[in-house]
Amino acid sequence: MTLLDFFLLVVAGLFTGLIGFVTGMASIVSYPALLAVGLPPVAANVTNTVALVAVGVGATANSGRELTGRGTTLVRWAVLSAIGGLLGALALLVAPEGTFEVVVPFLVAIASLALLVQPLVRRHVGELSAPWIVPLGILLISVYGGYFGAGAGVIYLSMMLLCTSESVWSASVLKSFLLGIANLVAAVGFAAFGPVHWGAALALGAGAFVGGWCGPPVVKVIPPGVLRVGIGIAGLGLAAYLAL
Fold first, then answer.
1. Which site among 5, 69, 168, 184 is 20 to 30 Å from 38 CA-CA?
2. What is the per-residue pLDDT for 64?
3. Which of 42, 22, 32, 68 is nearest to 216 (CA)?
4. Whole-angstrom Cα distance, residue 7 to residue 199?
5. Spatial CA neighbour of 220 closest among 64, 63, 74, 57
6. pTM metric for this prediction
7. Angle between helices 3-23 and 27-36 (to 10 degrees)
8. What are the angstrom distances between the C-alpha of 194 and each of 29, 47, 88, 143?
9. Which of 46, 85, 80 is nearest to 192 (CA)?
């Protein structure tokens, strides 16, 4: 990797962290950037997961007060995220290549549409408050986050806004924290058994930490409705991109 490649990955990491916190679509920047500097797809995927840990660290460091006072609920969710991240990493290492490629665009598209119609659903249906929905959703989304993760944040935000009374702001903080745990656990597995490119991970992660740190104050000044619609529309674009 050249010095120019390193610099470009730092810049890509900055946008990765910011976009990842604001929209939940970090991988749409980071994964193509790793491919652009010459990493093969599997190496780019595992290196991307390692680097994305920095987004959660940066965002949590600048918004950790939002997580206080949640007690054992947050602990249970964190454990489910860790289990999901581990299962996702195992799936990437042992499953046939392209296992999720067919279904992922549909997952992202459904989540994006759910974000766009969320006020209508909440007005006529209320919260989808079955006690098992959120824990199961956290587990399954974390599996996907550990496996690849493009659009995982969109899916997470959609679930939280439909199934809980969390605001867009608090859901964004929870999303970064819990997916950060999933990425961390997956990253440990990839570090031991996967083809991580550590130079690229360092460059991307350095930028992603700064971008993740900058994310919370940016989200705070964007009107919630504008943010929700923007994420939903961008998510549909991501779904189309992944399908093609």
1. 184
2. 76
3. 22
4. 11
5. 63
6. 0.82
7. 160
8. 21, 9, 13, 17
9. 46
